[in-house]
Specification:
8-stranded mixed sheet; alpha+beta; about 30% helix; about 700 residues; 5-stranded antiparallel sheet
């Protein structure tokens, strides 16, 4: 039978994050004072453990009564053995908090008063006008606190939030306007200070997950102070984006018995030691002057003041996840953080709690794709000699033939572009994907509820040439048998066509793996837009007006919104990360294949559903308005219009409400916003040249979004 300490450790691990319970130290004191015997402990926890089992097996409510039972036990002990019997601890030294500008005002939380207890970290006052290093431009991101998004909440375990931006004078700017004094002059000292004294980090997003490692963002001045180059110079270093192994800082890290991941010391460096028990020892560094914050995902952030950078990244960390690399990396990390691969399960033989598979996750081990789901260079394809073709589920890149334009369409004065908000995110909602390895079937009956890849001939289906085919990314008619993801074929059935698969690779275990990922990112996207004045209760006219100037109100929140959108696109793209480097040879493995999240079939499912959603709206627009699109690029569609506003051609009922089925304006994923307006003559000219008006409708080159 398990010992008293093991049983208490088990129940403590299960209830670790319950805020209603006393902290672990108090629970340990109560148990010691109570002198509970092993037999009594087993009896007291028997029902609790059984309830936990029921909860894990899905046979009880999300919040089972185990918490209340354990609370009653603790309260009984607390009444019998009050804490005042122990020697009183000395009062903590409270660091004074000077008055600071509104931009950096701290927002107290339930767990935190306006003065912060000293945990061994000096808290610096924020200067009224922080000195700006030479060459750093002023930013327009300083705004009254009332107009900013809510500050990320902090808790007792991480009193200073998830991250800090370190400047060259030793000031570490954390969230909520806190400025810490960091005495570190080397990278190992910085890592030690971060883990032991800074109070930085973030709680796990799932009860079976892990806390987020603290992030330290280094300004150029801080990087130089720590012995790092301001920029990575030289062709070799710029190409690989990492320090050479013989660099003094890399040697310092190794000498201090810290480790770097296989990516080495690059713009996003992860420095760690093996975990001791449940305590992780890992710090994430981001070097601003090494382009850690991509301008496309984080527009203008790298040039902001350190306190403003901390605010922007802090809002993202609160709403999405503490950044651990590019937004694509963060998107993938968020999937795992919300669906951890393992959880604590009880070994029936020993009664001990061990690590086991967490149902609904992708598990700990990578999984080989079916040959048609892989890329041509994948070992599964090269080693098997597969020549049967591949899935081609990609986003739309379609331009309508000029010859199909009617005289009436050509005489319309404007071409108006509509963009669907985070179309891939909308497609991820309630998306059932495969969780197990693929099984091969010959001549199976098509089932729209089974995720997988099907070989089907759809070349007999003839659709209106004024619309793109829903079955191919370029909108052309299929020419013979091809591999399709389940959603594409389900849509063919929806349109009234028979589907007769020749063969298929299907997965028996399925689940809505991306649901928590979708829900968190949707909440982040909608909430950030609302903070910028674009709320759900606006009329369509008010929505268009609000979207026209929403980025100007707060450049910091505009950057957060951009990063959220990039997290969606990049996260989906990372599910099928290709090999990088000119020295790669076909048939070799590459690092991404070692991840359980290398799942090209899930990526195909998201993009297939997004493309089908787009075609369904295009088809319904024809039925509701008689209008046909001029071009589609991923989630952007261009229509001919009698006016410069989408209100001039979108379908509305007599009551003024939008007609269901077509494109609708709004701030939530899957609804549309105005992308741009040009003249119809301009659009036709591009179409005649074979160019896509949807790419340029905004007034510049749009970024091609293929989920890569």
């Amino acid at each position: 039978m398990a010992s008293e300490e093991e049983l208490f450790a088990n129940i403590d691990a299960l209830l670790e994050e319950e805020p209603q319970l006393p902290p672990p130290a108090e629970r340990a004191r109560l148990r010691e004072a109570a002198g509970i015997t092993q037999a009594r402990l087993a009896q007291a926890l028997k029902s609790t453990v059984q309830t936990v089992k029921n909860y894990e097996n899905g046979r009880s409510e999300p919040k089972p009564p185990r918490l209340e039972a354990y609370q009653r036990l603790l309260k009984g002990w607390a009444a019998k053995y009050p804490a005042h019997a122990a020697p009183a601890a000395p009062a903590p030294v409270v660091a004074p908090q000077p008055e600071v500008p509104q931009t950096f005002t701290r927002v107290p939380t339930v767990e935190q008063d306006e003065t912060e207890p000293d945990i061994g970290v000096a808290v610096k006052p924020v200067p009224e006008h922080p000195a700006r290093p030479a060459g750093r431009p002023a930013t327009s991101s300083r705004r009254p606190a009332a107009k900013q998004a809510a500050k990320p909440a902090v808790g007792p375990r991480f009193p200073h939030g998830p991250l800090a931006v370190l400047d060259g004078d030793g000031s570490a700017y954390a969230v909520g306007g806190v400025v810490l004094d960091c005495p570190a002059t080397t990278v190992p000292e910085l890592v030690g200070w971060t883990l032991r004294e800074s109070g930085l980090g973030a709680a796990k997003l799932n009860r079976y997950g892990k806390d987020s490692d603290p992030l330290i963002v280094l300004t150029a001045a801080a990087a130089v102070k720590l012995g790092l180059p301001e920029r990575l110079e030289g062709h070799e270093q710029r190409r690989s984006l990492r320090l050479p192994e013989d660099h003094p800082v890399v040697k310092q890290v190794a000498k201090a018995k810290w480790q770097l991941t296989q990516r080495g010391f690059g713009p996003w460096a992860r420095i760690y030691r093996k975990a001791q028990g449940r305590d992780r020892q890992c710090v994430q560094l981001a070097v601003l002057s090494w382009d850690a914050l991509d301008e496309r995902s984080w527009p203008g952030v790298a040039e902001m003041e350190p306190a403003d950078i901390a605010r922007v990244l802090g809002v993202y960390a609160q709403r999405v996840i503490t950044p651990r690399g590019s937004t694509a990396v963060s998107g993938l990390e968020l999937m795992t953080a919300l669906r951890p691969p393992t959880k604590a399960v009880q070994d029936p033989a020993t009664g001990n709690w061990v690590s086991g598979y967490n149902a609904g996750s992708l598990g700990r081990e990578p999984m080989d794709p079916a040959p048609p789901e892989a890329t041509p260079e994948h070992p599964v394809v090269v080693n098997s000699g597969w020549t049967g073709g591949f899935l081609n589920e990609e986003a739309y890149q379609w331009v309508r033939s000029v010859g199909t334009l009617s005289d009436e369409e050509c005489t319309l004065p404007f071409a108006v572009g509509l963009d669907l908000n985070t179309a891939f995110l909308a497609a991820a909602a309630r998306l059932v994907v495969g969780l197990s390895a693929p099984d091969h079937f010959h001549a199976p009956k098509f089932n729209p509820k089974i995720p997988g890849s099907w070989l089907v001939d759809l070349s007999h289906i003839e659709l209106d040439p004024r619309l793109p085919s829903p079955f191919t990314p370029d909108g052309s008619r299929p020419t013979g048998p091809a591999w399709y993801q389940t959603h594409t074929l389900a849509y063919a059935q929806e349109l009234g066509y028979d589907v007769h698969p020749i063969e298929a690779y299907l997965r028996r275990e399925t689940g809505a793996y991306l649901d928590p990922w979708h829900d968190r990112l949707k909440t982040a996207y909608v909430g950030t837009l609302a903070d910028m004045g674009v709320t759900r209760d606006l009329s369509d006219t008010e929505f268009l007006a609000a979207m026209e100037h929403h980025k100007e109100k707060d450049p910091g929140l505009a950057a957060v919104l951009s990063a959220i959108k990039a997290t969606v696109k990049g996260g989906v793209g990372k599910l099928r990360e290709r090999p990088q480097g000119k020295h790669y040879k076909e048939g070799e493995t590459w690092p991404a294949l070692a991840r359980p999240t290398w799942r090209p079939d899930i990526r195909a499912a998201v993009i297939s559903k997004a493309r089908v959603n787009m075609h369904r709206k295009l088809n319904n627009m024809v039925k509701l308005t008689g209008l046909f699109p001029l071009a589609v690029l991923s989630d952007c569609v261009v229509y001919p219009s009698p006016g410069e506003s989408p209100l001039d051609f979108l379908p509305y009922a007599a009551s003024g409400k939008p007609q269901p089925g077509g494109f609708r304006l709004g701030p939530t994923p899957g609804l549309a916003k105005l992308e741009g307006v040009q003249s119809m003559l301009w659009a036709v000219d591009l179409m005649e040249k074979g160019l896509n008006p949807a790419r340029h409708i905004k007034g510049g080159d749009a970024v091609l979004d293929e989920g890569e």
